[in-house]
């Protein structure tokens, strides 16, 4: 890994990134790599808690799957009564008008937990559907106040089960966990995920982190901006899709537990479900089409068309990737954070910095090189 460390150190020295933390592990315990690289104007250590944005989604997925194991809910259950606000504005029939008005209809298909977990329940983010972005920009009825119900008070983008959009659905899953357990997501995570794994750094109210870097253009230096808004700015409750602070050695404990299939978090049959294709044919086609043109993904997503969605992340659904095995699970967070678990190859890894915008063209090669180096180090 020394060659890769040199690449990252040079990137920090040149102002490409403010610093980085990266860890890798394998099943046998022969590969247990952990490193932090910091620049003169930043403090990145292995104990530094990062704002991990959508890396929160994997933890929320594990939480609700624990409830499935306990019989509190089933994957195919209709959950609309638990989150009535999710579909209260209906499914869009067409475009949003300039005054914010639109026509819609109630969902014809069921909103299930499974569809929420796989981003196929009808929801979207503003950056994954231009109509939702327009609605937020012009609708006099949209007011964000730092709660899930206000911040994601959108119409649905498509019929549940008939499409795919990356979305706020895991924030809704977090609400379901809170309603079924009568605990905040903070307390549920602490009692059922963090404490069993010896994780002490994680919180929705983590506070201090390295300043976010917002790069103006690809040739700009990575100048920290402590005033830059982030994915937790102004939040008043636990957002299960984006709100967690955690240091990456602690996050690695979650990845390694799933890699080892040690049953600390989930039963083996439940973990196996996470690594299986989960989308309908229509939703899978929509996912692949989305990935062909998406400008917001973080990590190496070659246009192989060999993708599905597992329970917790993007799933490799083919054999043409140069190093990833079929059924590798992976995903990322907007400020240039990324994880992967390849159970067939027996490796997992996580990379993190705090750089925006998502899919930063300067950081992406560093993430790709990290993942490739892990496979090479493993001899694969």
TrEMBL record:
It comes from the Eukaryota. SUPFAM superfamilies: beta-lactamase/transpeptidase-like. Residues 7-358 form the Beta-lactamase-related domain. Keywords: Hydrolase. Pfam families: Beta-lactamase (PF00144). The keyword tRNA-binding does not apply. Belongs to the class-A beta-lactamase family. This is Beta-lactamase-related domain-containing protein. It comes from Bionectria ochroleuca (Gliocladium roseum).
